[in-house]
Input
Amino acid sequence: MQIGICGKSNTGKTTFFSAATLVDAEISNRIFTTIKPNQGVGYVTAPCPCKGLGIKCEPVNSKCVDGVRHIPLRLIDIAGLVPGAHEGRGLGNRFLSDIMETNALIHVVDISGGTDSEGNPVEPGSNDPLDDVRFLPEEINHWILGILSKNWKQLMTKSTTGGEKLEDLLHNQLSGLGIGLEDIREVLGKANIGDGTNQSVMMKFVDSVRRKAKPMLIAANKADVPGAEKNVHRIQKEMGSAIPCCAEAELALRRAVEAGLIKYSPGSNDFEITGDIKGKQLEGLNFIKDKVLRKFGSTGIQQTLNYAAFNLLDMIVVYPVENETRYSSGKGRVLPDAYLVPRGTTARELAGRIHTEFLDKFVAAIDARKKQKIAADHELQDGDIVKIMLKK
Output
């Protein structure tokens, strides 16, 4: 699973990425600082079963911090987009291609209104962040529509006279963008696109497909800037979901943890000073505590990642084991792995995710908590601990 961090230049997009991954990506206020996408590993968090079971876990593919499991996922910091990107402005086609390789998008917006439409720094409040919120999905929609328009007549001919299904033809055109057949089929079932010549109708179709294939969340960054909070409420009212963020604060806190100066867990509303901190450094940390953590409840970075995985993509966490009594692997490690899987994943599908060869060898599974056998088509629930039974 890969989540894209995207938006205009100078919105704090790369700072968000660096705070989430601690990858030393170049950060500046120059447009197009990021040309090639930066890639790194971030984490989503979920309650680890260890506390409820009263056992000590020994994670392998993830980590457990005070009973909270940190599960890795791939993040990609996509270079800044400008209006007209779908027409090639600002290397737009290349950047849009990077966007389409993701499963979901976090759109980082300068909620303070301190970045103009081209990504240049301006006086906070002089730009309307609502315009920025709208521009990115519009650019993606126009780009997808442009791809379809090039071959639309041929597609309609094949569909009406060649006996091929329109959904299959559309999928062939859009599969390279990471748009699945099921997404296209579902949207077509609800929309009548006619002969495809009505641009307004086609744009609605493309918009619906994009929403299904590339769900997007607004990260309202720079929320600590004076006057920005009112814009957060405006965006939340308009869009339904937007998380106030302060990427600079999160990055500062994580750097302080690395230096042994504080104890802090991502997503927390507080931190504990453990090192010798004085002067401006102490002032900066106190500012973060008062103006970010106490005001918003967190820096918003961890909450954004969690929302993207668990709400946008509707993922759950399951824990495969080999010994259902001790909740351990074959090597004796307790609760070694945590897997992010789509809600509705079956026991057999989990086996295939662990190893493709397990699909043919699958017999059944055991719910380790209940010590009950479950069928191949049993849909797993969030937090399940599962033993996969295979043919010998």
Remarks:
- Residues 25-35 have pLDDT under 50 and may be disordered.
- The two ends are 31 Å apart (CA to CA).
- Residues 199 and 244 are 35 Å apart (CA to CA).
